[in-house]
Amino acid sequence: MEKMEQKSPNYTCNDYREEMILLGLQKQLAKPDLTPDEKARLLEEIAKVEKKMGLD
User: Alpha-carbon distance 39 to 28, whole Å?
Assistant: First the structure.
Protein backbone atom coordinates (compact mmCIF):
# COMPACT_ATOMS: atom_id res chain seq x y z
CA MET A 1 0.00 0.00 0.00
CA GLU A 2 1.34 3.45 -0.92
CA LYS A 3 1.86 6.15 1.66
CA MET A 4 -0.11 9.33 1.22
CA GLU A 5 2.22 12.25 0.76
CA GLN A 6 1.56 15.55 2.44
CA LYS A 7 1.46 18.52 0.10
CA SER A 8 3.33 20.73 2.53
CA PRO A 9 5.58 19.23 5.17
CA ASN A 10 5.47 22.51 7.11
CA TYR A 11 1.68 22.71 7.48
CA THR A 12 1.06 24.10 10.95
CA CYS A 13 -1.80 24.92 13.28
CA ASN A 14 -1.41 28.54 12.22
CA ASP A 15 -1.91 27.55 8.58
CA TYR A 16 -5.09 25.71 9.52
CA ARG A 17 -6.26 28.66 11.60
CA GLU A 18 -5.76 31.07 8.69
CA GLU A 19 -7.71 28.74 6.39
CA MET A 20 -10.61 28.63 8.84
CA ILE A 21 -10.58 32.42 9.21
CA LEU A 22 -10.68 32.76 5.41
CA LEU A 23 -13.55 30.30 5.12
CA GLY A 24 -15.49 32.13 7.80
CA LEU A 25 -15.03 35.46 6.06
CA GLN A 26 -16.09 33.96 2.73
CA LYS A 27 -19.18 32.49 4.37
CA GLN A 28 -20.09 35.89 5.81
CA LEU A 29 -19.57 37.46 2.38
CA ALA A 30 -22.12 35.05 0.89
CA LYS A 31 -24.92 36.44 3.05
CA PRO A 32 -27.51 38.15 0.84
CA ASP A 33 -28.39 40.94 3.28
CA LEU A 34 -24.99 42.63 3.51
CA THR A 35 -24.71 46.39 3.27
CA PRO A 36 -22.15 47.77 0.82
CA ASP A 37 -19.97 48.84 3.77
CA GLU A 38 -20.05 45.36 5.31
CA LYS A 39 -19.23 43.79 1.96
CA ALA A 40 -16.29 46.16 1.45
CA ARG A 41 -14.97 45.42 4.95
CA LEU A 42 -15.20 41.67 4.39
CA LEU A 43 -13.45 41.91 1.01
CA GLU A 44 -10.67 43.92 2.65
CA GLU A 45 -10.27 41.34 5.42
CA ILE A 46 -10.26 38.49 2.90
CA ALA A 47 -7.54 40.24 0.91
CA LYS A 48 -5.42 40.65 4.07
CA VAL A 49 -5.76 36.99 5.02
CA GLU A 50 -5.03 35.81 1.47
CA LYS A 51 -1.94 38.00 1.34
CA LYS A 52 -0.78 36.63 4.70
CA MET A 53 -1.28 33.10 3.36
CA GLY A 54 0.54 33.89 0.12
CA LEU A 55 -2.56 33.44 -2.04
CA ASP A 56 -2.64 36.91 -3.55
Answer: 9
* Closest CA relative to residue 28, chosen from 6, 53, 45: 45
Q: How confident is the model at residue 55 (pLDDT cuts 50, 70, 90)?
A: confident
Length of the chain in residues, anyone? 56
* Predicted model pTM: 0.75
CA 48, 24, 13, 9 torsion-angle sign: negative
Q: Which long-range contacts (CB under 8 A, 24 or more apart) does 51-56 make?
A: 52/18, 53/15, 53/18, 53/19, 53/22
Digit-coded pLDDT (tens) for 19-52: 999 999 999 999 999 999 999 999 999 999 999 9
